[in-house]
Amino acid sequence: MASGQFWVYRLTAAFRSSEWWAYKLPPLLAIAYGTLMVSGDSPLIGKVLHCLFYLGAVFVGAVYVSIINDLTDMDDDFAAGKRNRMSNIPPAWRWTLLSTCLLAGCLFGYLMWPDTQSLFFYAMAWIAFSLYSIRPFRFKNRGVFGVLCDASGAHLFPSLLMVSGMSHSAGQPADGLWIYSVGVWAFCYGLRGILWHQFADRENDLSAGLNTFATAWSTRRFVPYARAIFATEAAALLVMLCYLSIPVLWVSLLAYAGLAYIRRRFYGQRIILVIARHDGARQILMEDFYQVFFPMALLLSASLTEPMMWIALVVHLLLFPQRAFLAAVDCLRAVKNIRKPS
Question: How would DSSP label each residue in 265-281?
Answer without folding.
Answer: HHH--EEESS---SSS-
